[in-house]
């Protein structure tokens, strides 16, 4: 059955607990959300509270939420030239995936990393090696590689680099991709004038069946800038109309969309309202 409701949410903080995130999502008209598994600039993780997570699961089921997206901390770098940094990434992701089984069947997204001078091919091999150590056949969580803008030595700046990582993963059925609209725009993909062409390229290189979620962001910079500066919806170089075409595209419209725009909850509520209003078959 075709989904006639836009599955959209924003980035929320788990500081008040998991059930609180679900309630915040409902308060702003969201039916999915994204959250950091731990301090985004550090390593500290919130102590697990199984009852709190079960309460969130019940709320999500009652209100027909889409899948939620857990986001790894920015400090992870699975392809650093420093051994300890790579070990930290492996240990953290392994722990996060164990914790995610308390919210089974959802997504875990991470930035592939920066090769820090080793070269892209070495970075790709190191990222895949890490994934092959932490991913298990028993897990219910799908791990998502995020498309990147191409700052510095970032890996994942092109569809080809994402595909190269996926090709080396031994359990590909546990993997997927999160497409970030700001990142691909800053990376040079013209989703404003040629969205169909970009999606055809994605399908040819990676496969649209592997696209599981979208970070919906405008960009402060022109296409190809490789800078990764998010803007509010309609206030950047991508624009509201182009981003609305993303949410309405027949090949994308049933995916979960997560806003990562520079906003407070009221700002997110306004973006969600406007995007819902422009969604074909959607309701405000």
UniProtKB/TrEMBL annotation:
Binds 3 Zn(2+) ions. Endonuclease IV plays a role in DNA repair. It cleaves phosphodiester bonds at apurinic or apyrimidinic (AP) sites, generating a 3'-hydroxyl group and a 5'-terminal sugar phosphate. Its cofactor is Zn(2+). It comes from Candidatus Gallacutalibacter pullicola. Pfam families: AP_endonuc_2 (PF01261). The gene is nfo. It comes from the Bacteria. This is Probable endonuclease 4. Its EC number is 3.1.21.2. Zn(2+) 1 binds at residues 71, 111, 146. It catalyses: Endonucleolytic cleavage to 5'-phosphooligonucleotide end-products. Transmembrane segments: none annotated. Zn(2+) 3 binds at residues 183, 228, 230. Keywords: DNA damage, DNA repair, Endonuclease, Hydrolase, Metal-binding, Nuclease, Zinc. Residues 24-277 form the Xylose isomerase-like TIM barrel domain. Belongs to the AP endonuclease 2 family. InterPro entries: AP_endonuc_2, AP_endonuc_F2_Zn_BS, Xyl_isomerase-like_sf, Xyl_isomerase-like_TIM-brl. GO terms for biological process: base-excision repair. GO terms for molecular function: deoxyribonuclease IV (phage-T4-induced) activity; DNA binding; DNA-(apurinic or apyrimidinic site) endonuclease activity; phosphoric diester hydrolase activity; zinc ion binding.
């Amino acid at each position: 059955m075709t989904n006639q409701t836009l599955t959209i949410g924003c980035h929320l903080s788990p500081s008040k607990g998991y059930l609180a995130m679900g309630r915040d999502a409902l308060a702003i008209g969201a039916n999915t959300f994204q959250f950091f598994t731990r301090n985004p600039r550090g390593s500290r993780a919130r102590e697990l509270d199984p009852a709190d997570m079960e309460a969130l699961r019940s709320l999500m089921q009652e209100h027909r939420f889409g899948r939620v997206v857990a986001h790894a901390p920015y400090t992870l770098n699975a392809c650093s030239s420093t051994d300890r940094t790579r070990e930290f990434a492996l240990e953290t992701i392994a722990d996060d995936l164990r914790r995610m089984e308390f919210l089974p069947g959802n997504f875990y997204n991470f930035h592939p990393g920066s090769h820090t001078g080793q070269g892209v091919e070495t970075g790709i091999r190191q990222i895949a090696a890490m994934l092959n150590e932490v991913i298990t056949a028993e897990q219910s969580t799908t791990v998502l590689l995020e498309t990147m803008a191409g700052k510095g030595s970032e890996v994942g700046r092109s569809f080809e680099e994402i595909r190269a990582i996926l090709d080396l993963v031994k359990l590909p059925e546990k993997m997927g991709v999160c497409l970030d609209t700001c990142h691909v725009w800053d990376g040079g993909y013209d989703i404003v004038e040629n969205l169909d062409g970009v999606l055809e390229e994605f399908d040819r290189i990676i496969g649209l069946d592997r696209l599981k979620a979208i970070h919906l962001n405008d960009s402060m910079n022109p296409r190809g800038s490789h800078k990764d500066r998010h803007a509010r919806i309609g206030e950047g170089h991508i624009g509201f109309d182009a981003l609305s075409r993303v949410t309405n595209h027949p090949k994308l419209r049933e995916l979960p969309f997560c806003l990562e725009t520079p906003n407070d909850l009221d700002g997110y509520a306004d973006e969600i309202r406007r995007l819902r209003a422009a969604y074909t078959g959607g309701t405000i």
